[in-house]
Design a protein that fits this description.
Layout: E1 2-9, E2 12-19, E3 33-39, H1 53-61, E4 65-70, H2 83-97, H3 99-102, E5 104-114, H4 116-127, H5 131-137, E6 148-152, H6 166-172, E7 192-197, H7 206-217, E8 222-227, H8 257-267
Parallel strand pairs: 3-4, 3-5, 5-6, 6-7, 7-8
Antiparallel strand pairs: 1-2, 2-4
C-alpha cells in the first residue's frame, strides 16, 4: 500500500512514497525483504511518474519493498546537488529506524535510477561509498550501505551530451565533484546493472559506456545491456507505462531488461534462485 512519508534534511522537507510489503501472518518466522529506492528521471525539472509507481509495483511483485524518492529539483534558484545525495543518505539512515517494523533486509538495499535519477544513483555509488568523500557531502554517520545499483538510460557525465548547456550544468551543481560520476568510482563502489538503447537521442549511450568502462577498470562487477533501438525514457517499455493513444513507449525487445535484471539480482544473491 502506498504511504507518503516526509523526512527532513538541513531544515528542508522532502517526500518518500513507500510501498512496504505486508507481513504474511501464516509465517511463524520473520521474513526480511530486500528494498529498492527508486530515483525517477525528469531532467532534474520534475519527477517522472512513469518511472515511479509502475517500477515500485514491479519490485513489489518480486518480493522487494520499494520507495520512491522525491529529491531536490532545479527550482527556486536551488541546485540539485548536494541536496539530492544528502536526501538519499537521509533516506538510507531512516531505513534502519524502521527496519524491524517493516521487515527490511538492510544488507540488500538497491538504488534504482532512471535518466537524471541515474546520475544521482551513480554519484551516490561513487561518493557515498568512499569514506573520504562521504564525509565531505554528508556529515552524519551512514548507517546503511547499498548492496547494488540499477540504472536505466542514465546520465553519468554532465558533459557527455546531456544537458548540453554549460549554464544548466552549473545550475545542477556548482561543485564539479558531482559532474562526472564515473570519475569518482572507487574499489568501494557497488555492483551495477546498466541498460540503455543505442539510439537514445536525449542521453547519448556514451554515458552508459563511460560508467561500464570505469567499473571494468576498477574490476567491479557489472552487467551492461545495450538494445539496438528505442527512444529515451522507455521505463518498463510495456503497456503499463505507455502514453495513452500512442505506442512510442512500447518496445518488446527493450522490455526484457526487467527479466534480465531479476536474473542478475539472483546471480548476486539479492533474490533466491527459486
Amino acid at each position: 500500500m502506498l504511504d507518503r512519508k516526509t523526512l527532513t534534511f538541513d531544515g528542508t522537507d522532502f517526500q518518500l512514497d513507500t510501498y512496504f510489503l505486508d507481513k504474511i501472518g501464516d509465517f511463524d518466522k520473520v521474513v526480511n525483504h530486500p528494498l529498492a529506492i527508486i530515483i525517477p528521471g525528469g531532467g532534474f525539472n520534475f519527477h517522472s511518474d512513469r518511472e515511479a509507481q509502475p517500477i515500485a509495483m514491479k519490485f513489489a511483485s518480486e518480493g522487494i519493498h520499494a520507495i520512491v524518492l522525491h529529491y531536490q529539483l532545479l527550482k527556486d534558484g536551488k541546485s540539485v546537488y548536494p541536496a539530492a545525495v544528502q536526501q538519499l543518505a537521509t533516506t538510507m539512515n531512516w531505513l534502519k529506524e524502521v527496519q524491524a517494523e517493516h521487515q527490511i533486509d538492510l544488507d540488500k538495499i538497491l538504488l534504482v535510477g532512471f535518466s537524471a535519477g541515474g546520475q544521482i544513483v551513480t554519484n551516490y555509488n561513487s561518493l557515498m561509498t568512499n569514506p573520504d568523500t562521504a564525509k565531505e557531502v554528508f556529515k552524519d554517520k551512514l548507517n546503511v550501505t547499498p548492496r547494488a545499483v540499477i540504472v536505466g538510460y542514465p546520465v553519468i557525465d554532465l558533459e557527455a551530451g546531456w544537458p548540453g548547456d554549460d549554464e544548466k550544468i552549473k545550475q545542477i551543481s556548482p561543485n564539479k565533484l558531482f559532474w562526472h560520476s564515473q570519475d569518482t568510482v572507487t574499489k568501494n563502489s557497488k555492483p551495477a546493472f546498466i541498460w540503455q538503447t543505442i539510439t537514445d537521442q536525449t542521453v547519448p549511450v556514451r554515458n552508459s559506456l563511460l560508467y561500464a568502462s570505469k567499473l571494468e577498470e576498477m574490476n567491479l562487477p557489472f552487467e551492461l545491456h545495450l538494445f539496438s533501438s528505442g527512444r529515451h525514457g522507455l521505463s518498463l517499455a510495456t503497456y503499463q507505462t505507455q502514453e495513452p493513444g500512442g505506442d512510442k513507449y512500447l518496445n518488446d525487445q527493450v522490455s526484457k531488461w526487467w527479466s534480465l535484471c531479476m536474473n542478475w539480482l539472483k546471480e548476486i544473491k539479492v533474490l533466491p534462485i527459486n
